[in-house]
Amino acid sequence: MATNRSETMTINMGPQHPSTHGVLQLILELDGEVVVKATPHIGFLHRGVEKLSEHRTYHQIIPLTDRLDYLAPMSNNLGYVLAVEKLLGITDEIPERVKRIRVIMAELTRLKSHLVWMACHALDIGAMTVFLYCFRERECITDIYEKVSGARMTSNYFRVGGLSEDFPEGIEQEIRTFAESIPEHVEEYEGLLTGNRIWQKRTIGVGHISAEAAIDIGITGPSLRGSGVDWDLRRDNPYSGYEDYDFEVPVRDDCDTFARYKVRLDEMRQSARIILQALDKLKPGPVLANCPKIVLPPKHDVVNTIEGLIHHFKIVTEGFKPEVGEIYQGVEAPKGELGFYLVSDGSAHPFRMKIRPPSFVNLQGLPQMVEGRLLADVIAVIGTLDIVLGEIDR
Amino acid sequence: MSDQAIVEKLKAKFSTEIIDVVEFRGETTVTVKKEQIVDICTFMRDDCGYNFLCDLCGVDYLGQVPRFMVVYNLYNIPAKQRFRIKAPVEEGVKIDTVSTVWGTANWHERECWDLMGIEFNNHPDMRRILMPADWEGHPLRKDYPVQGPDREPYQGRLS
Questions:
Q1: What three-state secondary structure class fits A258?
Q2: ipTM of the complex in this document
């Protein structure tokens, strides 16, 4: 008579695997099709951003932040410049127009990030069409990015104290047309997925994590709101003028992949609402704060006057020196709370810059979401956590 | 509860543990001795409502004694408030893990050890996390060269 013996098998997934969204490696211990233990291995994309930033002036760090979550560069820019502005104590000096433009671009970035999430998540689970639809809309946002900042992905658009330049002519209408089309497009994606039996089977009840467990493990953003925790930094600790806008924070308490999917789609509708409100409130004005010791002078002065040139030269070569102190600034990035902890020793370089990347912390919840579940659910859970290895590994 | 009230509450409970209280740009930072860090963190979570550990990291104050500072950025989700606790750690001395208080501290502490070389007592899984397993040294320390080990310093300008 055969003995009823169970033996586990260890398999390796990634770092070269299309469904790991970059260079994530998972060591999976399987009992048949069931995951007994999942161990994430990260660090394959570690570039030492925190170390590098200790050797650069505050302005020179902005391009490094683009490359953290490269699917949402402007959210990273925003988190960083807000942190530096807080450290300098110039938060109240930021002009109205700057705040509005930052909100518009940050919300477009949220749409951009969520579109890539939707596209890849659906593709991973087997819905190819959604991928093509989402990238069609994402292309519009990259076009807007290009017109506004000159770059399609690594935008480097925000500056400490303002923006690198004002909106180009005609862009407001383009953004408005795009934002108005978003609810219709989201309906389209929902039409493809929400009622789809395969989609439901692959997401409902998959990747369950309770609110208590999610808070304990540090999950933030849409992944936490899918577990019924009503917390959004834009509303609860408003920054950059978010308190002026009327929007809802979507929350669902099913704690599964389907709930997180619905939360993100609702967030896209809300982002479009915020963009339209910000466009309505956008008025002409300066795009740099009146802080000559910190912000670069207007280009016109630099090329036409010797004082302007000296001013520009001094800020570029020497930077500025915030007083001794430490601050933490968190923003609601598309993937969760993105935090910058800055320590200044009074020099022109940060003494320590710690980045709190949402994906890094969210990924920590993966083992408890997949253990005891089927191997195929691992793919769904990686997708629903919406991780980007650029910011996990830094 | 205001930050001031939290500080008072902490002082009443752990009067001998508190080294310093600083307010800067509206943020309160309390520096405490490292011996009772787990008790202090548990108190912050259970009695002050700071149920969420946003971030944990180390700072290297090379040349000072104690050399390192472990920083805990806390958040109270129901009250939407932040608070910061710091604990100084000497080089080569361990601090207790708070991963029993907040599960999220697990990876943060691994990262802190990996990049900064601060060791944690009773940590459930102390391995390198970002650097390769066989890496030597701790890159975020101030005495670790920015260009990496055994390489000539960059000759161009950094700023």
A1: helix
A2: 0.89
Question: Does residue B80 sit at the A interface (CB-CB below 8 Å)?
Answer: yes
- Chain B residue with Cα closest to A362: B104
Out of B24, B104, B146, closest to residue A361 by CB:
B104
Q: What angle do CA A312, A315, A319 make, to 5 degrees?
A: 165
Residue A107 near residue A268, CB atoms below 8 Å:
no
A25-31/A9-13 β-pairing? antiparallel
Q: Show which of residues 1-60 on chain A sit within 8 Å of chain B, judged by CB atoms.
A: 42-43, 46, 48, 50-52, 54-57, 60
- pLDDT by 10s per residue, chain B, length 159: 788 888 888 888 888 888 888 888 888 999 999 888 999 999 988 888 899 999 999 999 988 889 999 999 999 998 899 999 999 999 888 999 998 999 999 999 999 999 999 999 888 888 899 999 898 889 999 888 888 888 887 777 655
Residue B135 region by backbone torsions, left for phi larger than 0, else alpha for psi between -120 and 50, else beta? beta
Q: Residue A227: which residues within 8 A CB-CB, separation 6 or more?
A: A209, A210, A211, A214, A219, A253, A255, A259
Contact A364 B52 (CB under 8 A): no
Does the pTM surpass 0.80? The reply is yes
User: CB distance from B79 to chain A under 8 Å?
Assistant: no
Please list every residue in chain B whose beta carbon sits closer than 8 Å to the beta carbon of residue A348.
Answer: 159
How many CA atoms within 13 Å lie on the side-chain side of A236?
A: 19
Check if A237 contacts B (Cβ < 8 Å): yes
Specify whether the CB–CB gap between A366 and A381 falls below 8 A. yes
